[in-house]
Amino acid sequence: MESDGPSGVLLIDKAQDMTSHDVVAIARRALNTKKIGHCGTLDPMATGLLMLVIGRATKIQDLLMSEDKEYVGTLTLGATTSTQDRQGEILETKPVDAFSKEQIHAAFDGFVGPFEQIPPMVSAIKKDGVPLYKLARKGIEIVREPRKVHVTSYEVSRIELPEVDFTVNCSKGFYVRTYAHEIGAKLGCGGHLSALRRTRSGKFTLDRAVTVADLKSAPREDLFKSLISLAEISLMRGA
């Protein structure tokens, strides 16, 4: 290894009920490196692809974060929550009609192409340097600016009401829980995101991802071998 230590991208398959920051801390110990960051926060509830940038790869963090993503999720209809996902408090419940496949698809069709999303109050976006979720905990509601997002495609794979499984391909900065919340609102019964897994970011998929269990226990040399080099990344990105 060069004297400044390893550089590259390590793909992690994040486990549930841990923060993206927890994964960075585990990786920092496992790789014995201080120069490490992550691309695109995953909520504790979410699993799947978390990209860690190590060494010189930290310089391309913004570039990697700007790419489109794919998520697989479950929308549970009939209940809205304070966080727009199952980790929040239930604010309202409504009966769920026997929606047809066509009605479900029509609601999803309303969120294809470019549109604006208002980020949830419980998010990592900062207002005057303070993350919104910290303000939300104090009961402070801040007016959030809508942000432009884009959905390239979606697929509904299972409808077993009140649950709907879907896959969505979207731009950076997209909130899947807000998407679930708004589709529930469009159907008139409300809804929230009850499961989420990130399966792709740019050209990176879970194929080469290391589990958190492996990150904790695998020999350091094996983890170094799992790194995707900067040279390979520039080839992948067609740079």
Give structural notes.
This protein is α+β, with helices and mostly antiparallel strands and 239 residues long. The protein has two domains: 8-66 and 203-236, Pseudouridine synthase (2-Layer Sandwich); 69-120 and 146-200, Pseudouridine synthase (2-Layer Sandwich). Helix content is 27%, strand content 34%. It contains eight helices and 14 strands. Helix 3 (101-109) crosses helix 5 (176-187). It starts with 7 loop residues before the first strand and ends with a helix.
Features:
239 residues, alpha+beta, Pseudouridine synthase, 2 domains, 10-stranded mixed beta sheet, two-stranded antiparallel sheet, 8 helices, 14 strands, globular
